[in-house]
Amino acid sequence: MTRLQRHYALNGTVAGLLAIALTMVAPTSLAFAQSTRPHSTGATASLSGVVVARNVARHTLVVSTHAHAVDTVRLSSANSARAMSLGTKVSAKVKVLGDGTFRVTSLARRGAAHVTTLRATVVRAAPRRLTLSAGGSVFAVASATSHSHDSTSKSLTSGDIVEVSVSINQSGLDETSLQQVGQTNLIELEGVLTSVTATSLVLAVDQGASTTITIPASLTLPSTIVAGNKVEVVVDYSGGTFSLVSISDDAAANASGVTSSQDGQSSNLEIEGLVVAANATSLTIQPGDSAAPMVVAVPPTIDVSTVTVGERVHARADLVNGVLTLTGLDVQSGEGDQGQSMATEVEGFVVSVSATSLVVQPGDQAPPVTLVVPPTIDVSTVTVGERVHARGELVAGVLTLTSLKVQGQEGGSTTEATQIDGSVTAVSATSLTIQPSDQAAPVVVAVPPTIDVSSIQVGDRINATAVLANGALTLTNFEVHTSDGSAGTSTLEFSGVVSAVSPLSLSITAGDNSQNVILAVPSSVDVTSVAVGDDVNVTASLVGGVLTVVSVSVNANSDS
Fold first, then answer.
1. Which of these ranges, 17-26, 248-257, 388-397, 510-519, has the smallest mean pLDDT?
2. Rounded Cα–Cα distance for residues 327 and 302 (Å)
3. Which residues of 187-206 are buried (b: 16+ CB within 10 A; e: fewer)?
4. In degrees rounded to 5, what are phi and psi of residue 384?
5. Which residues are within 8 A (CB) of 410 and not within 5 positions of it... i.e. 6 or more apart?
6. How many whole angstroms separate alpha carbon 357 and alpha carbon 493?
7. Residue 418 has pLDDT above 80, yes or no
8. Which whole-number Å values give the CA distances from 493 to 245, 264, 344, 467, in the listed order?
9. Strands annotated E in 279-412
10. How far is CA 374 from CA 101, 288, 301, 341, 401, in A?
11. In a 10 Å sphere around its CB, with 0-12 CB exposed, 13-18 middle and 19+ buried, how is residue 75 labelled?
12. How many CB atoms lie within 10 A of CB 320?
């Protein structure tokens, strides 16, 4: 039974243009670029092939299957993996895991094979030895020649896609013929972390060979990822450097995960997990409890306006000019997800905080993440501009704060920027309050003397750029979206204390930042029962560019 409910994808014209662009980069690998996971996560499937490698510590077998594909199957114990000889023909019933590997439910031996052909991506080419990646595993092939093969005039390098025929013996694989068939920037690796710093990690792959991987500023590693962990990573190989795209604990390859396209044969990723932040230009997806959140750019050709935080999605993305960009998205039903507690971690600067919500800006390229603050967590001492490490879990579909650590400031200022897109709810010569969305907390931005905001009005739709300067989120640039003059249909919600009221207008002091918001009262709304000092909840919409009351209710605990 399929779990997919809604599907988003590039239109045919754009997909065709993307295919042409990919052809210009790697013409021979285009045939493989469209391959995707053959089964839905959690589904059962049949698999047969030849064992070409094994990892006893990981409890895995690497199996060469049909059409030169390679799959990784996970066994129940180290002894089960150790007992399986290389070259054994196997058939298995398996369960599909979120990282693209398979969990064996039954396994049978069907004889032996001494040769096979497989397709894989080069991780490292050394004299007499190739380290390859395919199907979620890294393994080695011994070579009797230097690595300038067949019709290929240049030596092999990381990211080259090869089709290699091998002979199989109990000591490993020996290359008998090899041909390069394409190239990719995205490479899957697995191994043991030997070092982790704020900017890089070192991964021991294939019998301890070390690979250094840089960590981009926009990526936050989970606190559970430490030296000694067995991990799965996807890296972007460019300019001789491996850059981290995703990382997860190898032991957590269950309902969610990240994998490159089948056999790593294009710069395509598949990501399965829960949406933790969404806007018109980017999605942040949590692939699993022990995985780093992934930010995917959303092109103008894909509408994700109906995607909400907390939904489980299966996303497909390509590297476009070095940016991981969405090409397709399936929103899945909640079947089987009841009671799931998926955690995410975010590290960055606080851009808005109240007793009930916390908004954290992870980095320049990532959208702000909004977390609901439960009554059990006190954030009264947290201030805008502080650097924090927040952990949240989805509770009833809402990303809810579970723990928070305030980190020491390394300096009095930072140039890290954030983009805020929303409606202006308050404005003065020294500050600007923006409501990013109905569900996010308002963001207050200081206005420096060098920027004139006199043309901005309450109700304007604005895109603001701000940086943290001396602990305060400070405006550096803004753009007011043009209006077609039609009545607005978006709604905003405010909570606060009434400071003035008349049949034609209502003023409230809203939020913890004590911003005064003035709203027009239409004849259809009765405010005769509202008095100065009342604690109210107000729903408003933009009508002809004027913030207008739709409904108002007085809280039961109001003093009036």
1. 17-26
2. 8
3. bbbbbbbeebeeeebbbebb
4. -60, 135
5. none
6. 14
7. no
8. 37, 47, 27, 26
9. 282-286, 294-297, 312-320, 323-332, 343-353, 357-361, 369-372, 387-395, 398-407
10. 37, 22, 37, 16, 7
11. buried
12. 16
* Angstrom distance (rounded) from CA 540 to CA 30: 51
Q: How far apart are CA 67 and CA 220, in angstroms?
A: 37
**Separation CA 81–CA 403 (nearest Å):** 39
- Which run of H or of E encompasses 348? strand 343-353
* Alpha carbon 158 to chain centroid, angstroms: 25
For residue 146, give the amino acid letter. S
**Rg of the chain, C-alpha, whole Å:** 27
Q: Going from the N-terminus, what domains does the chain have, and what CATH number goes with each?
A: 417-480 (2.40.50.320), 491-554 (2.40.50.320)
**Element (DSSP H or E) covering residue 434:** strand 431-435
Q: What is the pLDDT of residues 172-216, one digit of tens each?
A: 999 999 998 888 888 889 888 888 888 899 988 876 567 899 988
Q: What is the CB neighbour count within 10 angstroms for residue 172?
A: 16
Q: In whole angstroms, give the CA distance from residue 464 to residue 432.
A: 10
**DSSP one-letter string for 18-53:** HHHHHHHH-GGGGGGTT---SS-TT-EEEEEEEEEE
The token pair that represents 102 in the structure block: 């398979």
Cα separation, 244 vs 257, whole angstroms: 15
pTM of the model: 0.56
